[in-house]
User: Fold Cell elongation-specific peptidoglycan biosynthesis regulator RodA from Xylanimonas ulmi.
Amino acid sequence: MSAAETSEQVEPQVRRPLRLAELWLLFLAVAAGVGAFAMVGLSIEDALPAHFWFESLALVVLALAAHIVVRIRAPFAAQTILPAVVLLNGVGLAMILRIQESGARGAAGADVVRNTQWSALGVVLACLVLWFLKDHRSLRKLTYTAMFASLVLLALPLVPGIGRSINGAQIWIHVAGFSLQPAEFAKITLTIFFAGYLVTNRDTLALAGPKVLGLQLPRVRDLGPILVVWVASLGVLVFQSDLGMSLLLFGIFVAMLYLATERFSWVLIGLLLFAGGAVLAWQTFSHVAQRMTGWLNAFDPAVFNAVGGSGQLVSGLFGMANGGLFGAGWGQGFPYLVPFSFSDFIYTSLAEELGLTGMLAILLVYLIFVERGLRTAITVRDGFGKLLAGGLAFTIALQVFVVVGGVTRLIPLTGLTLPFMAQGGSSLLSNWIIVAILLRISDSARRPSALPVRGQVGPGRITAADGEHDAGGAPGTTPTQIVRPVPGPSTTETSLGGEA
Assistant:
């Protein structure tokens, strides 16, 4: 075979995975949600709830529609990501329905139909992203556009006329009868910016700088980006009174710095900066001091009965204690006694009726989702994809930790919502977009490589291309130094689409 003929080799025909495992997992996820809908009504009124058929049909249609789009556009993506999210979304809707059906005064804000509509819109957005985003690497071109978009999104709630203050936090905008929280979308655009910036500057951040006591420290001029993010996160805290989002944005950047450089010094610097900022905010801003006082002295009667005190936190703790090991059962507890039991405190509501066993199962589903995201970051072939997948997976992990840690009094309350489960349109939309991007990167990571066009090293091995220098090698490795196997069409992953 001539060299010209060799250079024209194309990707072999590979049979698409059947994704039967995902179908079975989706069936179980939907069954859990529909079963929860039914048990809510049967426990409260001995009949199916008023919204049972609407909720059940909506959950089935959304799950199947998402599965079909994934089957067509990302057939090699990990098969546990979508079922895990559908399960979390369905159980969350069931709890919102349960609180709404109680008819209690504290449940007046629960609206399962509206939250289902937001979930549907989130699935539609995820499908659109998955359909039109053919290659995640195209997002790298938007690195600085994403940075500009992030700044605009974070500043929107401060714009007169559209910005709204709810419960003391200036984090909402109100346009055409809809309220949105722009910072929920800023966490995605910031992750894209961080991934694009760090994949370009990782060598400088990882290798340059002095060593002190065996700890690799960055150069002073390289501290600029982390200081900017530190100031920006403090700005969100100061001007918008949003402790949770401030922690989330700063945590994402520090985690992605560590992923890019593998230098613990960045984590240490980030923790020191955050600790300093937190102490300063504690001493300066009343809303932060109020959260800290409610955390440290939750059972003090004066703090418990104060406006904005620890009453909600303590009520949630007693609700979880009432759930015990196996829970009171759907419709048998009193979760509606906790204010915002359908949003900020939905974790305590679920803990009361599902018990410790049920909550560990839900945390395990989150763990599976995050593990799939991190596994995708490990296996994807380009540096930008590694950082983007790792950052998005960490975003969900950190948000779950902050919410669960807050309601269990491990850390102060922050005001974030539990991903995919709590009532809130902005959170649902942004988190479903994260799912779509992770599915796209997962498909790229698990898709069999094309046959070599140039630079073939040996049978079944090719070199990295397009200037990428991150395929598991050390920072600074040149593209010609990195080789990787080309999976054949007869491998288990290719023929069956099994999990890696």
